[in-house]
Amino acid sequence: MKPWRGAGICLGDGVGGKGRRGGKGWMGRTGWKGWMGRKIRRALPAPPALPALPAHPALPVLALAIALAACSHKPPGNDKDEDAQIAAARPAKDAAFLASSDPVPASRHAELLPLAYFPIDAAYRVPAILKPIEDRTVVQMPTSTGTMRQMRRAGTLEFALKGQPLKLTAFVEVGAANVDHLFVPFADMTTGTETYAAGRYLDLDRNATGIYVIDLNRAYFPYCYYNPTWECPYPPSENRLKVPIRAGEKMRVSLK
Length: 256
Known about the structure:
This protein has helices at about 60-70, 80-100, 110, and strands at about 10, 10-15, 40, 115, 125-130, 140, 150-160, 165-175, 180-185, 200-205, 210-215, 230, 250. By secondary structure, it is α+β, with helices and mostly antiparallel strands. It has one domain (about 10-250). The strands form five sheets. Strands 5, 6, 7, 8 and 11 form a five-stranded antiparallel sheet that branches. A two-stranded antiparallel ribbon has the order 1-2. Strands 3-12 form a two-stranded antiparallel ribbon. The radius of gyration is 17 Å and the shape is globular. Residues about 1-35 and about 40-75 have low confidence and may be disordered.
């Protein structure tokens, strides 16, 4: 399975959802094609209640993001190609999880597999601009174990979704061997009801253009959803979207 690359855009090629793949995907600090968490060996506390969602001001680059979408030179049918890749990756992930007891314990295979997803929707695949953040302040990001992970803000992804301006902060872990892998944890209005209460993740690979494609159809749960022996960072308050993101992974049973 080849890693997915974002569609070409007028100012450069975006890159998204890319990751190394092994027998079970990224292990250790990262999991299946992305950042899934560190493996630990102790009982964990329940995820904390998520703070209130902040208001987001209008984005100054919204007009540019719209222009990028309009001038995209992706070939006809490209969305269908991306949709087909995602549709093929999902059963492959299920098969990998079924073949092992980690990250999904064998005792939970029937409960959790196959994984559940919202229908693939090209409307959730949008261009974004990464505005770099030069501030080197270390962010202490809480995790599912109650410990902290040290992160730095790499930049702010600004984009428009269904006509609404949004933004998400991309992070790099302090001391990470690969500083070009951008970690984007987020929560939205489905969090805790239709999707995991501790949020979902996206991954991007840094490029020289600062232009990306965010594909929310690739949003996934951290491994601690399936198995409490994994340690997973919680999305910070700045990454709590005031809209429902009905794309990507969801819970098999809604709590609404």
